[in-house]
Amino acid sequence: MSKKIFSGVQPTGNLHLGNYLGAIKNFVDLNNDNQNECIFCVVDLHAITVKQEQDQLTNNIRETAATFIASGIDPSKSIIFNQSKVHAHAEGSWILSCMAPMGWLNRMTQFKEKAGKDKEKASVGLYIYPILMASDILLYDATHVPVGEDQKQHLELTRDIAQKFNKDFGCEDFLRVPEPLIKKNFSRIMSLKDGLKKMSKSDPSDLSRINLTDTKDEIINKIKKAKTDSLPIPNEYQELNERLEAKNLLGIYSSILDQTLDKTLKEFGGKNFSDLKSQLAEVLSSKISPISDEIKKLIDDQNYLDKVLAEGANKAEVIAGKKIKEMKKIIGF
Ligand code: AMP
Ligand code: TRP
């Protein structure tokens, strides 16, 4: 079946292995299936829900586009653009924010995590962030949205908002209710320093993550320093539930090689972590270093990146512009 794919990544710097294994690697597979229509968005309007430096934001927008392309997304097959270039995203977000009850937003756990203790100081944008995400998806009639596990709740909200809009305005099927595409396994890559924490751009320790721009030596060093425990690697899956760092490293190895955790356990069960670490460092550097080299090459070619983003925005504008027009008509504007 042909799918309409939409997904977004924030241009907030330091794209890492979690982004790659949780999301971008899937984008590439979906891009490679000729039956799909894919749209990959650099969500710069989402990025400014927390403070960004002007120059850095501009660079990060290009770097995120470069990461998409370097990972294997072909801009002649998929639309790559940045959100702020297409007006309909912000307009749709306003309309949907008038349909979505506060109670639904109050349940969003990511806001609670990101706002931290002092919620009064968080921006209103951070609070309504999931509505902008719903607007992104619904404007393109996306059928499937590939994301990491942490976005599941936002996608459920998107589905609820679409259904409520359709019901409130008696326009069944006008907003398409999208399906999440979340990998069953390894959809949540954890920090290399703490098996309880998600691998994240915002972790102050660079050793907690493998950045997609890391060199071979940096990757080897980070895997060497990754937290483990003192026991040998278990043979049984069940034992991993109490050994989160081991589970994460074995999961990363399985995910990057597209193999089951069972197979990885057969390979390493009973061995020491040094065996796993040396193999993992080798596999990661052979898969990530070429991406890293390509990102660096592309970043030097600003004209090319700006052209890809501008062409993408023109194509996106046609689709989203038509949808927002219909939406406004339904409302009575
Ligand atoms: P963000 O960088 O927050 O815009 O996230 C971009 C994509 O990467 C989203 O689909 C996230 O769900 C995914 N993602 C971010 N961090 C992780 C992680 N640690 N493990 C798996 N997926 C992740
Ligand atoms: N909220 C997503 C994240 O932080 C990024 C995002 C914005 C997104 N709009 C989207 C993902 C639309 C999928 C579809 O990871």
Q: What's this model, at a glance?
A:
With about 325 residues, the protein is mainly alpha-helical. About 55% of the residues lie in helices and about 5% in strands.
Task: Characterize the structure shown.
The chain is mainly alpha-helical. The protein has 2 domains: 214 residues, HUPs (Rossmann fold, 3-Layer(aba) Sandwich); 92 residues, Tyrosyl-Transfer RNA Synthetase (Orthogonal Bundle). Helices cover 54% and strands 7% of the residues. The protein has 13 helices and 5 strands. The protein has a 3-stranded parallel sheet with strand order 1-2-3, with helices on both faces. A two-stranded parallel ribbon has the order 4-5. Helix 8 links the parallel strand 4 and strand 5. Helix 10 crosses helix 11 and helix 10 packs across helix 12. The longest helix has 30 residues. It is globular, with a radius of gyration of 21 Å.
